[in-house]
Design goal:
- By secondary structure, this protein is mainly alpha-helical.
- The chain has a domain of 80 residues: Arc Repressor Mutant, subunit A, CATH 1.10.10.
- The protein is built from 4 helices and 2 strands; from the N terminus they run αααββα.
- A two-stranded antiparallel sheet has the order 1-2.
- A hairpin with a 5-residue loop joins strand 1 and strand 2.
- Helix 1 crosses helix 4 and helix 2 crosses helix 3.
Length: 117
């Protein structure tokens, strides 16, 4: 499991504790098998608890609850995830600035007043 998938699962469970694994997989854009694997790992780590109930289609469904340990780990994961995204943002911003300067130089050299791609 990665911080990103852990973060997204914990956030989703916090928002929709009664979500089915199939809907969770769809929302996350991952396979049902990966979703099941990640949920089992979180259950084993004690980050979440699962409570079963009968849903409207008379099938067994689960409601997921973040445990105090899960909430603590969600906070840690969120911080790591945010730091990584900020670093990616800074790298992308640097690259955009570099490309804009390169285009400006090329326009000056060619006497172009407007960049047309």
């Amino acid at each position: 499991m990665t911080d990103e998938i852990d973060y997204r699962i914990l956030k989703l469970l916090e928002e929709k504790p009664d979500i089915s694994q199939r809907d969770m997989a769809k929302d996350l854009g991952v396979s049902l098998g990966k979703t099941n694997y990640c949920l089992k790992a979180m259950l084993e780590k004690g980050w979440i608890k699962a409570k079963n109930f009968k849903n409207s289609h008379n099938k067994i469904a689960y409601s997921y609850l973040l445990t105090p340990k899960g909430i603590e780990n969600k906070t840690k994961i969120t911080i790591r995830f945010l730091k990584r995204k900020m670093k990616e943002y800074d790298t992308l911003k640097y690259e955009i600035d570099r490309l804009q300067k390169e285009i400006s130089i090329q326009k000056e050299e060619k006497g172009v007043t407007e960049y047309d791609g």
